[in-house]
């Protein structure tokens, strides 16, 4: 199951980035499960990684290599089918060995390669099969490889996610293209997801990191499928400089806002794509909380709703169960919450106010509001002027089936 | 589905308490859905209530009446089928009207009656039907009514929960009997549960409140079924004084520890009974965290495991998925957690150490450890000497079915 349109949009090449997707047989013979991305010399790469204390071996090595290459890696290598997580010292050595295979095939230093893995936790990585597939990947690098790469990084996802945005600034044309994967174990602070974005702009390394962090905070960190967070998450943003602009070095330049907006647009599209393809998802739900005193309290309310299994099973049933919504709002921990000032809307139908069902509300209105695949739950706290939104999916039989059967 | 033995133990009468369970037709005609408890004059009653900001009308009224009766109410009235929550001012009036019906039938003040409701949120209480059933309840009050009351308070529960403990102290015989309901929306800080305990001891009101609070903290506040908390939770402890002891007035008296232990034993039995009957439960899971620096960090780790949908679906599948356990431990937010010092056991089988699968571990051992209905997950943090345990259940198709269909 997945919600909404299935079609991958056209993914525009980013001059300076070439990609190849080949089969290494990591978990399933014949599956195209290995993606190599080549970054033109001089490209800057920013990255954000999982906050899980049990971070996977490739995350440790990718962080280290990003630092050792001074933010200018030459290759990104991603395998699916195996997360190389919970694999201890051996896992670290295996991640390094994969980087060495790329180094041997291309002549760069192993520290110029960032490794990424996703899939089953706790199995040893089949390094030999991955290494054997690397030379074939190097031979097949191409600028138009984004769509195949979007397929190659998937695990339990049912469809690829990608987005491109073009814009012009001061007479130059720019592009931002991104792909992402992740369908479960998704919640704030970088859940099981991998995201790769690139632009042809030339951008100072520190500024690039700031643009990525800001965009991730309001996109990937605003989604929740099941409240779990993963050991392997990573999102990178590459700036190749192939556009030929003088390096963006200040947030005051016109290019800064234009680029940051484009990166944000791509990140939001990818994040919403992850939720629409959430494990077992049959609804795409936007939870908007308005009228809060602070962004934190708006997010507390929004995520409490988004994480509630009772709300999520009601969404699966298309049941306008406003009682479960009120119960979730009430336990979100907002200090001095006056429940009598709160309004709750389902797709613009006022369902609850003054601490109870709205006088104007009818069950028919609620049923009609819950019928579409896309649902907006809006909570008006009426105590301030801050707002925040998160996106989530419902909780279905299929969610249980997928996660009960995943390893078997 | 439910886990373990189905038989309600013998529930011993508590001199000074009489109970009646009758049918008011709140939601289903003929269902015995109304429970009246009468407390002998002079009884003290302690209570703890939900922390949800959207607390239900009966909770508001029960708190107020407990205070107005100086902790000495004469009657407790409980209906199932309707939670009288999210019903605003009308709900408050309805809860008061139910108290007045008891007052009219018995001659006590309405403020000497505590109302309790459980069931669907957001529907108006059928006060007329409840009021009409009260006189019949008054006529049927009896000391041996505990087992019928344990049935009468249920909602989605599949079986009644009750426990009795007897003990002697300084030549007198004492009894503590309790019943509880609740099968979903259960997590720390008083989830959807109602609990009623009584003892024949005479106990000072403040001391009684302390005994109840302590017992609730390590029983009902240590269980989680789905991470949701309710608007209606309440647990009361009545001390009738029928044993004839001089009123217990100090924690230094021998009776204090004996009584507190008995209350704790009953609360733990009831709390575990709630988990065993958790919505869709097929496993009863104890999560023990040892070797922590503080109780808080042990509980953070234990509840992160207990709330994880990925761990819970793996438990449903009897899948020894230690990778998901490590991922949950890693995101529990424990500061400076050294993952290489952690050991994880499934029913005494060491499955993970040094941040990865234990060298001694075999998949066969894991499968064997996961086969029983009762599972102990033990996490050894090896950084201090504090421990804490919580109890939870798994996440099954039936959980989704029950909660997707509940209102229809």
From TrEMBL, chains A, B:
Keyword Transferase: yes
A Gene Ontology cellular-component term: cytoplasm
Chief localization: cytoplasm
Pathway: Amino-acid biosynthesis; L-arginine biosynthesis; N(2)-acetyl-L-ornithine from L-glutamate: step 1/4; Amino-acid biosynthesis; L-arginine biosynthesis; L-ornithine and N-acetyl-L-glutamate from L-glutamate and N(2)-acetyl-L-ornithine (cyclic): step 1/1
GO biological process: L-arginine biosynthetic process; ornithine biosynthetic process
Annotated coiled-coil segments of the chain: none
Sites annotated Cleavage: 191-192
Residues that, per the record, bind substrate: 155, 181, 192, 279, 403, 408
Pfam families: ArgJ (PF01960)
UniProtKB keywords: Acyltransferase, Amino-acid biosynthesis, Arginine biosynthesis, Autocatalytic cleavage, Cytoplasm, Multifunctional enzyme, Transferase
Site (Involved in the stabilization of negative charge on the oxyanion by the formation of the oxyanion hole): 118-119
Record-annotated active site: 192 (nucleophile)
Family annotation (InterPro entries): Arg_biosynth_ArgJ (IPR002813), ArgJ-like_dom_sf (IPR016117), ArgJ_beta_C (IPR042195)
Enzyme Commission number(s) of this protein: 2.3.1.35, 2.3.1.1
UniProt function note: Catalyzes two activities which are involved in the cyclic version of arginine biosynthesis: the synthesis of N-acetylglutamate from glutamate and acetyl-CoA as the acetyl donor, and of ornithine by transacetylation between N(2)-acetylornithine and glutamate.
Complex formation: Heterotetramer of two alpha and two beta chains.
Listed name of the protein: Arginine biosynthesis bifunctional protein ArgJ
Originating organism: Seongchinamella unica
């Amino acid at each position: 199951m997945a919600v909404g349109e299935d079609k991958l949009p056209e993914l525009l090449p980013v001059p300076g980035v070439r990609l190849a997707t080949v089969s290494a047989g990591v978990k399933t013979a014949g599956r195209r499960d290995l993606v190599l991305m080549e970054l033109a010399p001089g490209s800057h790469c920013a990255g954000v990684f999982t906050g899980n204390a049990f971070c996977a071996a490739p995350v440790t090595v990718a962080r280290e290599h990003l630092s050792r290459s001074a933010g200018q890696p030459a290759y990104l290598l991603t395998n699916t089918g195996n997360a190389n997580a919970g694999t201890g010292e051996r896992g670290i050595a295996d991640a390094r060995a994969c980087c060495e295979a790329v180094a041997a095939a291309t002549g760069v230093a192993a520290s110029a390669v960032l490794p990424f893995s996703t899939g089953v936790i706790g199995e040893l990585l089949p390094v030999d099969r991955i290494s054997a597939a690397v030379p074939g990947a190097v031979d097949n690098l191409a600028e138009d490889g984004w769509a195949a790469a979007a397929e190659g990084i998937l695990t339990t996802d049912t469809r690829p996610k990608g987005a491109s945005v073009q814009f012009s600034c001061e007479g130059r044309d720019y592009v931002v293209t991104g792909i992402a994967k992740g369908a479960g174990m998704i919640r704030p602070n970088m859940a099981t997801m991998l995201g790769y974005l690139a632009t042809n702009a030339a951008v100072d390394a520190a500024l690039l990191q700031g643009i990525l962090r800001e965009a991730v905070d309001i996109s990937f960190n605003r989604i929740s499928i099941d409240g779990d967070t993963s050991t392997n998450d990573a999102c990178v943003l590459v700036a190749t400089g192939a556009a030929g602009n003088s390096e963006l070095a200040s947030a005051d330049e016109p290019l800064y806002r234009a680029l940051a907006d484009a990166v944000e647009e791509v990140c939001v599209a990818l994040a919403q794509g992850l939720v629409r393809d959430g494990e077992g998802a049959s609804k795409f739900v936007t939870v908007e909380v308005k009228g809060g005193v602070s962004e934190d309290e708006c997010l507390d309310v929004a995520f409490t709703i988004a994480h509630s299994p009772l709300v999520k099973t009601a969404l699966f049933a298309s049941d306008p169960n406003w009682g479960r919504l009120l119960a979730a709002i009430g336990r979100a921990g907002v200090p001095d919450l006056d429940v009598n000032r709160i309004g709750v809307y389902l797709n613009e139908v006022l369902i609850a106010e003054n601490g109870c069902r709205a006088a104007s509300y009818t069950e028919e209105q609620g049923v009609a509001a819950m019928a579409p695949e896309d649902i907006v739950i809006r909570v008006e706290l009426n105590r301030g002027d801050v707002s925040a939104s998160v996106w989530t999916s419902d909780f279905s039989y299929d969610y249980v089936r997928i996660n009960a059967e995943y390893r078997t």
